[in-house]
Amino acid sequence: MGNVIQVLKPYFRVDEVLEEIRQCLEKGWTGIGFKTVDFEKQWSEYTGFAHSHFVNSATAGLHLAVKLLKKKHGWLNGDEIITPSLTFVSTNHAILYEGLTPRFCEVDKTLCLDPQAVRAAIGENTRAIMYVGLGGNAAHYRAMRGLADEFGLMLILDAAHMAGTRWLNSGEHVGLDADCTIFSFQAVKNCPSSDSGMICFRDEDLDREVRLQSWLGIDKSTYDRYTETTYKWRYDVTDLGYKYNGNAITAAIGLVSLKYLDEDNARRRQMAQKYEELLKNCADVTVIRHDPKISSSRHLIQILVEGRDQLMDWLATQGIYCGVHYIPNHRYGVYNKGTSELPVTDHVADRLISLPLHLWLSDDDVEHVASSVEAFFSRSGK
Ligand SMILES: Cc1ncc(COP(=O)(O)O)c(C=O)c1O
After folding, report:
1. What is the pLDDT of residues 81-95, one digit of tens each?
2. pLDDT, tens only, 302-315
3. Which residues form ligand 1's pocket by a CB distance below 6 Å?
4. How far is the CA of 253 from the centre of ligand 1 (A)?
5. Half-sphere exposure of residue 99, counting CA atoms within 13 Å on the CB side?
6. Domain residues of the chain, as ranges?
7. What Å distances lie between residue 349 and 65, 106, 208, 333, 367, CA to CA?
8. pTM > 0.70: yes or no
9. I want to staple 61 with a disulfide (CB 3.0 to 4.6 A). Which of 44, 197, 200, 224 is the partner?
10. Residue 58 CA, ligand 1 centroid: distance in Å
């Protein structure tokens, strides 16, 4: 394809990544252990999470978060987790995998869960709140922690978009006080590794257990056995676990992304701010603002417009490819298609666009996208 602008595109420091991968290949170690241990350690040092466990995706992490919290707290099938519909399906699949019920709740103009709607949705079967920091935002996160404390609920943070999102006043990473926080390092995320994730439990016992569950229920990893001198071959399988572990190659890629994460997020914020300034006088466009109390990872810049599909089609003719994050999950067959009582979610979902935001873009590209959006509306005579 010619000179097109994609909505998301990962940026890799290729030589540094290849050097990290070379170490795995030369050592003859590409599986669990070695770089995965290093990544877990460096992630904990960077974020301040006491426990970080590297898994093959945030989807796997979300599943294990729900599974282990269910087991520990004795939740029953059919118990509810309050969650947004406006998210990637992994968030809510994790709830269904464990026989629990996603209780879809409204977002507000921040596209994050609306605290008033959450309060109203809490009932006797509610066990947890699943908060999604859409695009790196943390709007109402503290209100969610407060509601979880008030009603004795668990707080799970789907931080798939939030690698590096911090509170401005303290510099602390958002989510340290959640019961479980899950990050994604999938291909187009802001800390890309090709495909992997990190699960950070607050509870040390659950951290121990998640290591077992993500490794088929085997009580010793291959790496532990490799580094042992005797009885290398002997282990027990205590649980029916999953093969959800991350591997050394994806960790090697992630380690390089982590090194540049703050720098990359700063560039993302700069581009997002530029979009905000350029579009502020365009009456047809509402830019979704992130919580001013945070320094956002700025995984996404999202706008709301009337005539969303026409705008996207026209931008595509100009070589500008935008995205939609997301189609609300309640519209999918597996989530009871058509039973929506989420007027705000439905309203925003039909108007939502993610503009291109990634490290391949120059300031001129951002100006070109913003002026193309404006040009569409002046062309259509609005
Ligand atoms: C909000 C959200 N949660 C979870 C996930 C799942 O992440 P992964 O692809 O690492 O499984 C994604 C990925 O797109 C996401 O956007």
Report:
1. 999 999 999 999 999
2. 999 999 999 999 99
3. 57-59, 87-88, 90-91, 132, 158, 160-161, 184, 186, 197
4. 18
5. 9
6. 14-259, 262-379
7. 27, 12, 39, 17, 25
8. yes
9. 197
10. 6
